[in-house]
Amino acid sequence: MSKLQPGDAAPDFTLTDADDNEVSLESFRGRRVILYFYPAAMTPGCTKQACDFRDNLGALTERGLVVLGVSKDKPAKLRQFRERDALTFPLLSDTGLDVHKAYGAYGEKTNYGRTVMGVIRSTFVIDPDGKVEKALYNVKATGHVARLVKELGIS
């Protein structure tokens, strides 16, 4: 699985959101997008990360950024996650992992000292032309959004 680099074309996709609507990356052309992949809705680390994005969403949207979260969860679970934690940005379902793989966000990783196949917590900033501006792999759930906000010069 190859990892994306800044300057690469961001792989286009259409996924289903928590309300069973189709969402396409192409529909966000002309805007900067933060696309983040997380292992599983409703888990402690993923909840922390999603709530951090929620809490910083105002500052991000003021700067013209759109936030999209992607997991392998089904829309019904994403709906529960959104409602439980008052998440106000789209959560997208990639049950087949095709989009995860296209972005290099699924593959071998180390988990508690063992090598396993799984979702690699990753974040991408995509520029208005659909090119990868930032590709961050193996990010930590805690503190990641603050680091991203700082790197983007938003804080």
UniProtKB/TrEMBL annotation:
Gene3D superfamilies listed in its UniProt record: Glutaredoxin
Active-site residue list: 46 (cysteine sulfenic acid (-soh) intermediate)
Alphabetized GO MF terms? thioredoxin peroxidase activity
**GO BP, one example?**
cellular response to oxidative stress
- Boundaries of each Thioredoxin domain copy? 4-154
List the record's Gene Ontology CC terms alphabetically: cytoplasm
Q: Does the keyword Oxidoreductase apply?
A: yes
Q: Which domain of life is it from?
A: Bacteria
InterPro entries listed in its UniProt record: AhpC/TSA (IPR000866), Peroxiredoxin_AhpC-typ (IPR024706), Peroxiredoxin_BCP/PrxQ (IPR050924), Thioredoxin-like_sf (IPR036249), Thioredoxin_domain (IPR013766)
Is-annotated flag, keyword Ribonucleoprotein? Answer: no
Task: Name the keywords, alphabetized.
Answer: Antioxidant, Disulfide bond, Oxidoreductase, Peroxidase, Redox-active center
State which Enzyme Commission number(s) the record gives: 1.11.1.24
Which catalytic reaction applies to this protein? a hydroperoxide + [thioredoxin]-dithiol = an alcohol + [thioredoxin]-disulfide + H2O
Q: How does it associate, per the subunit comment?
A: Monomer.
The free-text function statement in the UniProt record for this protein reads: Thiol-specific peroxidase that catalyzes the reduction of hydrogen peroxide and organic hydroperoxides to water and alcohols, respectively. Plays a role in cell protection against oxidative stress by detoxifying peroxides and as sensor of hydrogen peroxide-mediated signaling events.
PANTHER family for this protein: AHPC_TSA FAMILY PROTEIN, THIOREDOXIN-DEPENDENT PEROXIDE REDUCTASE
As for family, the record states: Belongs to the peroxiredoxin family. BCP/PrxQ subfamily.
Q: Protein name, please?
A: thioredoxin-dependent peroxiredoxin
Q: List the source organism.
A: Microbispora triticiradicis
Lineage start:
Bacteria, Bacillati, Actinomycetota, Actinomycetes, Streptosporangiales
